[in-house]
Amino acid sequence: MTKPYVDFEWTLAGSIDTPEESVLNSIINKLVQLSELAVAAEDMPDIMLQIQTCQCVLNNLRMHVGKASFDYYFSIADVELEKLDGLLETEGPSL
Questions:
Q1: Those residues with Cβ within 8 angstroms of residue 82's Cβ, 6 or more apart along the chain or in another chain
Q2: In Å, how far are 7, 34, 85 from 91, measured between CA atoms?
Q3: Could you report the average pLDDT of every consecutive run of 10 residues in the chain (95 residues)?
Q4: Which region holds residue 66: left if phi is over 0, alpha if psi is between -120 and 50, else beta?
């Protein structure tokens, strides 16, 4: 079982009071975790597709840190990470 991707650190990243540097660090940490998961899930196409989707929305989110559009893009990333958590619960690799 993997650690959930929607966790306390991620929740803090979406808070309006969180400094931009902390938000960027959280996004980068999620991207690193996703890269590590991709290695373990390379033979699992559904999970790989969701990992790639999450990587895409997180890379896009980085460009909106500190902008009015951040909340919108954060909510998209949050939904995609929750989908990944759900997939990992049901069919994910054991790490």
A1: 5, 6
A2: 20, 16, 10
A3: 82 93 96 95 95 98 95 97 94 70
A4: left
Token representation of residue 35: 């890269």
CA distance 13 to 20: 9
Question: In the 8-state DSSP scheme, what is residue 42?
Answer: T
**Ramachandran quadrant class, 14 (left: phi over 0; alpha: psi -120 to 50; beta: rest):** alpha
Report how far residue 41's alpha carbon sits from residue 47's, in angstroms, rounded to the nearest whole number: 7
Regarding pTM above 0.85, the answer is yes
Nearest Cα residue to 28 out of 72, 75, 77, 71 = 77
> E-strand spans in 1-95?
none
pLDDT of the residue at 50:
97
